Amino acid sequence: MDEFNALVEEANKVFLENFDDSTWFGRCIFLSWYCDVGTCDFCFRSTVKHKIKHAQSARRSVASIITDAIIGKNLGWRIEFLTGGYRIFSFPEILDIAKKVSQVYGEKIWTNLGALSRDELEMLSPYVSGVCASIEAINPELHDKICPDKPIGPYSEMLKVAGELGLKKSMTIVVGLGEVQEDFEMLADFITSHKLDRITFYALKPVQGTPYTKSPEPEEYVWWIAKTRVRFPKLEIMAGLTPKRSSDYAELLLKAGANALTKFPAVKRFGSEQAKEIERQAASAGRKFHGSLTELPAVDWDAEVDPLPFDDVLKGQVKEKLAQYIEGMKKNKH
Ligand code: SF4
Q1: Is 184 exposed, middle or buried (0-12, 13-18, 19+ CB in 10 A)?
Q2: Which atom of ligand 1 is nearest to the CA of 84?
Q3: Helix H or strand E encompassing 304
Q4: Atom of ligand 1 nearest to the CA of 114
Q5: Mutational pocket test of ligand 1: of 46, 146, 172, 205, the residue with most ligand atoms within 8 Å of the beta carbon
Q6: Which atom of ligand 1 is closest in space to residue 38's alpha carbon?
Q7: How far apart are the first and last CA of the chain?
Q8: Environment class of residue 193 by beta-carbon count within 10 Å: exposed (0-12), middle (13-18) or buried (19+)?
Q9: What is the rounded CA–CA span in Å between residue 41 and residue 259?
Q10: Which of 89, 122, 159, 294 is the most buried if burial means most Cβ atoms within 10 Å?
């Protein structure tokens, strides 16, 4: 057996010794399509085209954010995190949205909203169980080149304070930005020193208008996940299905020790061949997939909205949006 297959096999073994055989889909809920940082050189939000299309004023309506949450909850998707919109929405608005989304789910949620201050974390803590730091690249030189306006220091500080407040902690990392396998030790140090509970991996998806032209090979992406699983047996590992055909290697991501999958346009591609393939591959990895990317449950959607503690205007808007989204998902399926 070659080195790579031996690593994946070991990672799968470590996973099964520490977790049950379930998996799920983790959905990001975006607050806006615009980013106020907007200078990370790999990101579609840094491209001129994106900035023109999504001017700073382009915020998602609260009704559509809540609609996302209601659909996700009923399809058994977990919230990966609430993200985006920092400095687009005011902090009181963000706080209100986090509260409303946690009310829909009936539990505290995760957020990924930039480097939050102690006061902000304290205010969010009734609705938020964990915070994520978008580190993207762990090698400091590479990081400063790629994300010049998103330094690691304030995120480290946020994670420290989050720990003091009893919140869980997570980070994101994008494989394919230029890190080499020797940099793994830097990642391991970061996870250890910040006592992280979770990490989310993404494979770089090259975007036109950025300096990148190719995604990492699946083996390269999977290597980082498997290494992390072996080194950190109890860490929650999420794996993004970033590149176009990544549904083809969902099985490999799970066998490499990822707990669950994220970054798939689950509403837009609901019931699609790719969605079916993800579920099939989860099964062939020996995992029970909780929730569904392919079957709409029989839900009285209005009855999901009625008991929520929101005003009638908002409830009306959510019902309208829900009807549109569900209609679209049914059409995708056929
Ligand atoms: S990576 Fe995050 S912070 Fe950087 S431009 Fe993209 S959305 Fe903004």
Answers
A1: middle
A2: 7
A3: helix 301-305
A4: 3
A5: 46
A6: 5
A7: 43
A8: exposed
A9: 29
A10: 159
Closest ligand 1 atom to Cα of 44: 6
**pTM (predicted TM-score):** 0.95
Residue located via tokens 């998806």: 205
Instruction: Please report, in tens digits, the pLDDT of each residue of the chain (334 residues total).
Output: 699 999 999 999 999 999 999 999 999 999 988 787 888 999 888 887 776 666 656 789 999 999 999 999 999 999 999 998 667 888 999 999 999 999 999 999 999 999 999 999 999 999 999 999 999 999 999 999 999 999 999 999 999 999 999 999 999 999 999 999 999 999 999 999 999 999 999 999 998 889 999 999 999 999 999 999 999 999 999 999 975 666 678 999 999 999 999 999 999 999 999 999 999 999 999 999 999 999 999 999 999 999 999 999 999 999 999 999 999 999 876 6
CA of 199 to the centre of ligand 1 (A): 17
CA 63 to centroid of ligand 1, rounded, Å = 24
Question: What are the structural domains, with CATH classification, of the chain?
Answer: 3-333 (3.20.20.70)
